[in-house]
């Protein structure tokens, strides 16, 4: 059960100073404007909030993704590739991905490779990818639940990447539980 106490900000109302904003004017094709308005209604957010989310995603991810050697591919394609790999091949791929790719992407997109930058990068990746997930804070650990719906081998692959990145590279204490479609990572304080 998540902790509920006076120090847990997730259960308190906190007033934060608003970020400074400016009003700007854009010319947007009528059809695209209608599509954005319809999306804001479906998502039940204001048009302004939706546009700010789009700008944030562009600046935090899409703008730099290709420079960070990231690409988009169909989920089914990735699933088929991973399903064909033996456990030893998945271990090697996870180790190489953690050692080379995750470090480089974190350095490029966040300017550092720390638990904080990795956590922020992971949260952004999950949000941009629209992968259902939840972050929870407990007294002695943080937990992230990722429901990827991509099969057991993908769960295994993510677990191995997390192990190499967190335990080996960052020397953090962690544990991981997996099912066919879910990964639950616990990062201990």
What can you see in these coordinates?
It is a single chain. The protein is built from six helices and four strands, in the order H-H-H-H-H-E-E-H-E-E. It is 52% helix and 13% strand. The longest helix is centred in the middle third of the chain and has 24 residues, at 87-110. The chain has helices at residues 30-42, 47-65, 75-84, 87-110, 115-129, 152-169, and strands at 133-137, 141-147, 174-178, 182-188. Strand 1 (133-137) and strand 2 form a beta hairpin. Helix 4 packs across helix 6 (152-169). The protein has a four-stranded antiparallel β-sheet, with helices on one face.
Features:
single chain, 189 residues, alpha+beta, 4-stranded antiparallel beta sheet, 4 strands, 52% helix, globular, disordered N terminus
Terminal Cα span: 17 Å
What value does the Rg take, in angstroms? 19 Å
Largest sheet: 4 strands, antiparallel
Residue windows where pLDDT falls under 50 for at least 5 positions: 1-12
Overall average pLDDT: 90
Helix % is: 40-55%
**SSE string:** HHHHHEEHEE
Strand ordering within the main sheet: 1-2-4-3
Number of helices: 6
Secondary structural class: alpha+beta
Per DSSP, what share of the residues sits in E-state strands of 2 or more residues? 5-15%
Number of strands: 4
General form = globular
Query: What oligomeric state do the depicted chains represent?
Result: single chain
């Amino acid at each position: 059960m998540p902790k509920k106490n006076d120090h847990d900000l997730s259960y308190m109302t906190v007033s934060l100073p608003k970020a400074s904003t400016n009003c700007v004017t854009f010319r947007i094709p009528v059809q695209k404007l209608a599509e954005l308005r319809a999306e804001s209604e479906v998502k039940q957010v204001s048009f302004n909030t939706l546009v700010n989310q789009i700008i944030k995603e562009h600046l935090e991810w899409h703008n730099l993704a290709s420079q960070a050697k990231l690409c988009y591919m169909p989920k089914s394609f990735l699933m088929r590739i991973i399903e064909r790999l033996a456990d030893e091949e998945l271990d090697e791929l996870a180790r190489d991905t953690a050692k080379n790719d995750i470090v480089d992407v974190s350095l490029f997109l966040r300017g550092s490779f720390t638990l904080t930058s990795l956590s922020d990068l992971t949260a952004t990746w999950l949000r941009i990818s629209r992968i259902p997930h939840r972050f929870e804070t407990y007294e002695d650990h943080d937990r992230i639940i990722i429901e990827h719906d991509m099969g057991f081998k993908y769960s295994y692959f993510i677990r191995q990447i997390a192990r190499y990145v967190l335990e080996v590279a960052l020397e953090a204490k962690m544990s991981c539980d997996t099912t066919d479609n879910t990964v639950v990572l616990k990062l201990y304080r």
